């Protein structure tokens, strides 16, 4: 009886400590714990784009306290790091088309980290998010979009080609929402973040140790 209770305790502790630590998804200097919606990279944290799918900029900012809309510069930084793209002006549409995409794995890596906001398009893989600084102050913002012209996992390689683009420039208001677009939310990397992955597991370890000692004591008493 005591032994089965002990086993249940151990299992519970082990399960709860595993829940905190999922696998670390890492690509192109960006990382995300598989249990988390937060991507860390380029000196920033990004909310996965599919978390805010269908929300307007206003709704996303209301829902996620402490987060702000990614600026033009921040989105430019992300796109130039991942895809070698820059958009210098709010009103300029930066488009790059790769008829023979060199490296699909970069796209797939991005989707794995940032999620796929568009699960409606068949035969292609798209993720999109609102962002912008509204430098021309007309109340209209931008959307970034990354698209593979085939579905991830598709076996046909003959049609493989990729497009990545920021489009259209200066197009959506803060109350507009699109069922296949997310909102690019960013925040500074929390100071305690570096230590949290270590400190979170400590209480579980202590509990585990305590249970172990308790089990030993019980065993000793029986003997
Ligand atoms: Ca604008």
UniProtKB/TrEMBL annotation:
<feature type="transmembrane region" description="Helical">
    <location>
        <begin position="200"/>
        <end position="218"/>
    </location>
</feature>
<keyword id="KW-0472">Membrane</keyword>
<keyword id="KW-0812">Transmembrane</keyword>
<keyword id="KW-0732">Signal</keyword>
<feature type="signal peptide">
    <location>
        <begin position="1"/>
        <end position="22"/>
    </location>
</feature>
<dbReference type="InterPro" id="IPR013424">
    <property type="entry name" value="Ice-binding_C"/>
</dbReference>
<keyword id="KW-1133">Transmembrane helix</keyword>
<protein>
    <submittedName>
        <fullName>PEP-CTERM sorting domain-containing protein</fullName>
    </submittedName>
</protein>
């Amino acid at each position: 009886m005591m032994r089965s209770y002990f086993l249940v305790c151990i299992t519970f502790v082990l399960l709860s400590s595993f829940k905190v630590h999922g696998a670390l998804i890492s690509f192109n200097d960006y990382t995300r714990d598989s249990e988390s919606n937060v991507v860390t990279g380029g000196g920033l944290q990004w909310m996965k784009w599919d978390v805010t799918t269908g929300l307007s900029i206003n709704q996303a900012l209301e829902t996620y306290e402490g987060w702000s809309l990614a600026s033009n510069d921040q989105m430019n930084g992300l796109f130039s790091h991942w895809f070698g793209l820059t958009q210098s002006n709010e009103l300029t549409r930066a488009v790059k088309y790769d008829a023979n995409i060199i490296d699909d794995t970069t796209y797939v890596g991005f989707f794995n980290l940032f999620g796929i906001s568009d699960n409606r398009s068949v035969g292609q893989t798209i993720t999109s998010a609102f962002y912008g600084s509204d430098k021309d102050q007309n109340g209209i913002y931008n959307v970034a979009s990354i698209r593979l012209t085939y579905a991830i996992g598709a076996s046909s390689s003959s049609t493989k080609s990729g497009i990545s683009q920021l489009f259209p420039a200066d197009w959506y208001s803060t109350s507009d929402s699109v069922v296949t677009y997310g909102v690019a939310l960013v925040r500074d990397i929390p100071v305690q973040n570096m230590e949290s992955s270590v400190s979170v597991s400590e209480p579980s370890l202590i509990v585990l140790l305590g249970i172990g000692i308790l089990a030993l004591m019980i065993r000793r008493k029986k003997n």
